[in-house]
Design brief:
It is a single chain. This protein has 2 domains: about 70 residues, Orthogonal Bundle (Arc Repressor Mutant, subunit A); about 110 residues, NAD(P)-binding Rossmann-like Domain (Rossmann fold, 3-Layer(aba) Sandwich), CATH 3.40.50. The protein is about 45% helix and about 15% strand. A 7-stranded mixed β-sheet has the order 5-6-4-3-7-8-9, sandwiched between helices. The chain has a two-stranded antiparallel sheet with strand order 1-2. Strand 7, helix 8 and strand 8 form a beta-alpha-beta unit. It starts with 7 loop residues before the first helix and ends in an 11-residue tail after the last helix. The mean pLDDT is about 90.
């Protein structure tokens, strides 16, 4: 399938489509219209059709979408038809929680090893994944054809580690360190700033409070008291 330049906004919605379609598939739903999908996802039907049209469209007007076919095609667009070998760098609480999250494997993302600078962790395992010393990382990446590194380390160390990963041939970095990484354009970086997400939630709660205060004032305007 030939793809045009697709906006990041569209790409950011694809995993959500994939997740909802997977749930529909599990529930035995064969077909769904853009309007029905819109009600489930709280995305307009027009937006859904526009998003899918970026990839040639997947349905027929008046006939809807074949759920299994659409699920598989979006999976291919997301690259989920290929397995990805990953390493974890930083085997602290967050890193260990990620390794234990089974759904990554169901999507074709496999942790092959973990690395940490703490000598007390080296040689131990998490969910069957062995923790190695940082000195072993380069050879491990080459031997196991690793293409994604997951960074769960302090931001003070993240930039220097990222530069090593680039030299070792890593193609993608899932970055949980709260810092922008100095890597070349050929290396894809997905930043996950947990505090940013929490601050966004705080903002939306504040906006909701302000809206409620406007709609339901605490005092009754003069002249309306009974």
């Amino acid at each position: 399938m030939e793809e045009r330049d697709i906006s990041q906004a569209v790409i950011s919605r694809l995993p959500r489509y994939y997740r909802y379609l997977g749930e529909l598939k599990s529930d035995g739903v064969d077909r769904i219209s853009s309007r029905e999908l819109s009600r489930l996802m709280h995305v307009t039907a027009s937006q859904i059709r526009q998003d899918f049209n970026n990839f040639g469209g997947f349905g027929q007007q008046g006939y809807g979408y074949n759920v299994e076919y659409l699920y598989e095609e979006i999976g291919k667009i997301l690259g989920l038809d290929n397995a990805h070998n990953m390493i974890l760098i930083g085997a602290g609480h967050l890193g260990c929680a990620l390794i234990n999250y089974m759904n990554f494997r169901n999507r074709g993302f496999y942790f092959r090893g973990a690395f940490d600078s703490n000598p007390q962790l080296v040689g131990t395992s998490v969910a069957g994944i062995k923790i190695y010393s940082m000195d072993e990382m380069e050879q491990f990446i080459h031997d196991n054809k690793i293409d994604i590194a997951v960074l769960c380390i302090p931001k003070t160390d993240a930039s220097s580690i990222a530069q090593k990963l680039v030299r070792y041939g890593i193609r993608g970095i899932w970055n949980f360190a709260h810092v922008d990484l100095p890597v070349p354009d050929r290396v894809q970086v997905e930043n996950v700033h947990l505090s940013d997400s929490l601050m966004k939630l705080s903002y939306n709660l504040r906006r909701e409070d302000e809206t409620e205060n406007l709609v339901r004032p605490d005092t009754v305007p003069a002249g309306e008291a009974t």
